[in-house]
């Protein structure tokens, strides 16, 4: 079976695909792409085009030439689309592009997540937001406690913080959370400034997998895919409230079965085996 490349959602990691990958089975080769910046060593990309270009380079390490099979979910569907656009522009072939609950949110007039500042400033602001959220959580925990209970709660938190200061790697969890916030904000900014361009070239089929929840579809707004791609387009509607619900829990199995069925299909325009 040809390898399948998964593009992550707005949080940048592929953990959300775990149930779906399990249902696809061990015979299906899977490669997961993750956002730069999750390890904190590099600044995350704040451009969909830059992300797509990086992922294309990574993809070609494992598969130098097409046909390629690429799947993206929600935010990742936008990145997957741009990856395919870039691949086709270089003369490459893509047999399958699967977009799971693709977001229509892009090119916002005002980007509240944009911040033209050095990375150290962005991380400091993200850390400040993290501290505020923790304080809100602590205040919520103390509601309903008497004075003695509140003092005891604060004493336990103080001891916990004091202990972490002498334990190696004690703040690793907090740093991961901070990195996650930084990646999330960069990804949302990238989405806010992205303008979708039409794709042209040797694409076998464009498959859209969307949630059955009519309200979710209404809120996200339709995408006129025919204005971006003139080839075969197939829409599938599956159980679920949103993209995460579609690929996890009990919904993962029917999603995986349909995905396998579509990957094995030979629709008009298919480029498998070329």
Main beta sheet, described?
6 strands, parallel
Q: What is the H/E string? A: EHEHEHEHHHEHEHH
Shape category: globular
CATH class call of the largest domain: Alpha Beta
Low-confidence stretches: 108-114, 159-173
Give the radius of gyration. Answer: 21 Å
> Kindly, what is the distance between the CA atoms of the first and last residues, rounded to a whole number of angstroms?
14 Å
| Class per helix and strand makeup | alpha/beta
Main β-sheet, spatial strand arrangement? 2-1-3-4-5-6
Question: What's the CATH topology name of the largest domain?
Answer: Rossmann fold
Strand content: 5-15%
* Total number of strands: 6
Number of domains: 2
Helix content: 40-55%
Secondary structure tally, helices: 9
**What's the architecture of the largest domain, going by CATH?**
3-Layer(aba) Sandwich
Mean pLDDT: 77
Question: Which homologous superfamily in CATH is the superfamily of the largest domain?
Answer: Alpha/Beta hydrolase fold, catalytic domain
Tell me about this structure.
The protein is α/β, with parallel strands linked by helices. The chain contains 9 helices and 6 strands, in the order βαβαβαβαααβαβαα. It has a 6-stranded parallel sheet, sandwiched between helices.
